[in-house]
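EI: anyone free to look at a 738-residue chain?
SC: sure, send it
EI:
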Amino acid sequence: CNLRLARGPVTLNPRPKRVISALPICHASIGYPIASHHPLRHRAYRASSSDTFSNAIDKQNVSEAQRRAAQLELQQMNQSTSRILGLQLTSNNVSEVISEATVNEVKSAIHYWSRRWYMHFHPGFRRAAKGSALCASDFKTFMESTQQDAAKESDLLEPTNFSGDHGARQAEKLLDWAISNDLVARGAFDSSMDQSRMNKEEHLGMSPNLPFVNIIETYLLPTVYGGVGNSIEESAREEALGLSRKNEYGTALKHSVINASYVRALADATRVMKKMKHTQSTYHAQVAPDTLSIKAELNVWAKRAILLGRGTADDIALLRQSEEDSANEEGIEMYGSEADTVQGCMRAMDAIITQAEKKFATQNNENLRPSVDWYNHFIGALARSGTECALAKAQQVLGGMEAYEANVEISKDGRKCYAAPDVITYNGVLFCMTRDGSKSGAVEAKKLLERMNCGTNNVRPDEVTYGTVLHSLAQAGMADEAERLLEFLEDAFNQSSGDDGCITPSLTVYNTVLNALANSHEPHAPQHAESLLDRMKALSSTGKNPNVEPDAISISSVILAHARSKTRWGAERGEELLNQAMDNFVNEGNARVKPDAIMLNCALTGWTSLPDTNHGEDAYLVNDEEIAVKRAENLLFRMLELADQCDVLPVAHSFNIVLDCWAKSEVDGAADGALELLRLMSDYGVEPDEISYNSLLHAMSKESDPWWSTQADNIIREMREKKIPMSLITYNVLMSVR
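SC: here you go
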């Protein structure tokens, strides 16, 4: 069916200014879902907004015609796939039953299930496509109606289970069928286009590895931007969680989440990658390694390195078990123990690139020309590996890419890079530099940003570049540098004409600078934070930059800046800002500033951060001789009473802040106050942890009554009964009680 007719005309709204809207993300290790390759371009093609069904309807509702067109194509492909897989074949009739028309039908079906199906129905496509406004509930409704119509109109077609990997699994079945029936030699993976059309339409995929690559990338969708589950219901739950967090904090989760979906996706993609490698070795003349296949292979290894570096022991065990199941069921060879370490993955990626570079250099095969995506995957994996030599290796590769035109060697063995860097390359190196949150890393990142602004390799910084550098400055507490960088962005934005690609500072940028001020501990930080908060309000209210209206993160950062001033006025002002946010949410319905546990903890810190509570009115007496710790405790209970209105879920950390305040105070009855507070935690559904008990023991250590020594023994016994781990700190505090 012709989906173009069903879609109708599509108008894409222009976006003259780029917007920084994300915390630092290294895109280098994130695989794009659909890739095709043309040898004359020397790099893999990336799906753009005009290529996807979901993006085409981004600004409009799913129409009945669109839904019916997608449903009709799905129905036809279901019937075609069932017919192909149901063919009765013997060794004597293969050539007779499988005609050239059937071979072409197989090619079309593989293309549909590995590419078009996920455009229509994949529950995670709204994220993978970067821009689709359809939420999980829209997809669910869309597909439920599609299933119902399909069941009504065809007795042969059962309602399809639209799990996230359904299309890829269908494509893999057809792929296995084609390989087992020797269709590779009959051109099942050959291009159907002649050279003249290739030259005119370079964006169309010409790689014989494309069926494998599309399946791999579709399987890997749950590993992109936090992932999505393998069912619509799971997707809807994750979508609701993401939207809730976005409403509270103004930003959504941006990093990959290691979960069961991630592990299954990686295991499936690895299985198909091994099949691709086996097919390449068996049918080298028809399916040879090329730029696209190596990019997909590196993508899988990069995702594996992320899992091994950030996943739990259970995640890694699940991956190993999945690979063992594939080995037993399909005879696919298992990786050795080297592949179960981050360092092993990095060595594997380095070897893949090095071997491909040598082949290209010796054979001058344009189909194997190294792509910038190869190096970006490698640098992205290095950035997340946490290995000691990661930064040095990433900088070495970047240096070779920057010297690409000069044909400079990057190692003693004569190795060279064969692609110039792009902005993703620089972002990956920046992520390496800033991973540890050190001041030296932030300084190096700022220098690299300055190089890019000077026009290095004609690569302009993008929103991720600035976000990464600002985030590193915030972690290092380099508030002055962060403010100057924000001023640079604001000046460029104010001077822009609107069509020069200028970056628009977003809410996340302003929040990051506020965070830098809070982390700086400078005396002027609270005043600068208040001034920046007022500027954000003015920019949003006047419409000059409406997207920077302060949210809960903004308020929390300003409160924290006041709290870290360690003054009574700062504590008072922090509590005042918290009360204002509560009033704006409860009485005015402003959900953007809805108080949460983070905001409460920042306000509590203001009272507990005051200097020695045994000296000075500023530290000890607060409002009618009320001690600071009681002020903090009253604030905690007042917010807990309002929990139903603002969804402030009590957490152990909030109680621990006040318990620590009791422990550090020198007032009479501090141990009684701490013990009473700890016993109240369970009333709010919060279980004390080691920090809670350590603070209580610390408060007990300041009491002279021997009775408290007996109570300390009871506390230790209670911790053991609850199986709460006890560290060296616990035993040291216990000794001081005795």
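EI: The first strand starts at residue 18 and ends at 19.
SC: 👍
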